[in-house]
Write a structure and sequence with these properties.
The chain is an alpha+beta fold. It is built from 16 helices and 18 strands. The chain binds S-adenosylmethionine (SAM). S-adenosylmethionine binds near residues 33 and 132. GO terms for molecular function: protein-lysine N-methyltransferase activity.
Length: about 475
Amino acid sequence: MPWPGLPVDALPAWALLNAAVFHDVKIATLDGKGCGLVCESGLNAEGAYELPTLLSVPHNLVLNAGAVEEYAKEDRNFKQLLDVAGHNSTRDDILLFLLVQTVLASRAHQSSVVGVSNPWTEYIKFLPQEALVPTLWTEDERLLLRGTSLESAVNAKITALTAEFDKIQETSSDIPCWNDLLWQSRAVSLRDWFLLDALYRSRCLELPKSGESMVPCIDMVNHSSSPNAFYDESVKDETVLLLRPGVTISAGDEVTISYGEAKSAAEMLFSYGFIDPDATADSLVLTLAPFPDDPLARAKLVAFGEPPKIHVARNNGSIHWESSFAYLMCVNEEDGLDFRVLQDTEGNRQLRVFWQNADVTDQAADFESLIQSHELFALLRLRVVTIVQERLQDQLDRLTSSPAPSSLPASSDISATRSECARAASLLRQIETSILEGSIEALEKERLELLADANVVAYLGSMETANLDIVDEEASNGADEFS
Ligand SMILES: C[S@@+](CC[C@H](N)C(=O)[O-])C[C@H]1O[C@@H](n2cnc3c(N)ncnc32)[C@H](O)[C@@H]1O
């Protein structure tokens, strides 16, 4: 759709009309970051009893689950759309609302029987029409993520977004007014849906009272690893941007908040389209799949109930990793694992998980605790460490065998990629390579320690003897056949 746009210079007029108040700050265009908020005169929160307010936004402008419901009460056509295509999550409902506002904004000069205008119909015109999040990268650009933890995450998100868009089209095409407005005139494309998703992800906030929300004007504030401001909800239910305690800022300084100190480089790039090398948590998350030849693989996945993952983090040089599924993955029937399908009196069938004859269905996601007291815990831990180490090694091999953006010749496809994407991908690759190398080394150390554990040595010794006995037996059976 022709994306509606307004210059950001017009934002103060919108703010005035809608009672959003800027105090000593203004919107400005900043190098490499799009728009941002800049201080107009010096402010000081040192020893202040009341922290200086930089921006206040009335509650009626906050876009959250409740606001979408309220809008649906005013607009029965939107209610119909929401009823067939929404009500799955706050995010989905907000995206549907934004989709409608965008179409209304882009058709402002044309008469339409659907859609009630509201402050967001205008505000959406100030939002950027581009976002550097990888779901909006070109195919060539996405190749730069090969081997990083974002490779599969971005592909999965693209598949999910495409399915969402197809579903909205399918369910709303039966409603004549929405069919006319959204689909028949081809007003909306899949790329629009990707952009709305990117805008939502990079601009939504978690407010103490209003929950997951988009807040106009406050969503213009950029991120810094040493932020000078923070947002909150006031007693009057306004969303306010306040100067941080103890902070002094001068005219011309940029006002910034933190988008989350605990976010990894991959999360920052995925949600916001940039990586702040000073402020990302040294961590990564990888998917984990059960052994392809495990006959219990399907049951384990169903019992676990969520996509299996490995989390790795490095704090002050020491590695921490966690993978609940790896514990379930490494136990089998001979260890005491069992699955039974039980049927209740109403005929509903349910998969139950048993560990050493006890029903542990409710603890299936925490097998680490369940096996702590097992006499062969060290052996089970060795299996888990080996699984995790092999998965990380596979990832590292994939990462290092795909060429880094900077090592590609100018004539290669890299020239078809934007430099911001190449820079971000290159930084992500460096960060993840270093975490993977450090983690593999730590896991190898633990693996060697476990191999020296007395119980493990005794168990492996007994297995070797048993194997030799089988070989002897087979050899003597073979001799019989030829005698
Ligand atoms: C909440 S919006 C902030 C307003 C945005 N700059 C604009 O022009 O509308 C978040 C987006 O701003 C940009 N951004 C914020 N902080 C940044 C930073 N420190 N470095 C680079 N880009 C940043 C990213 O594009 C991010 O997705």
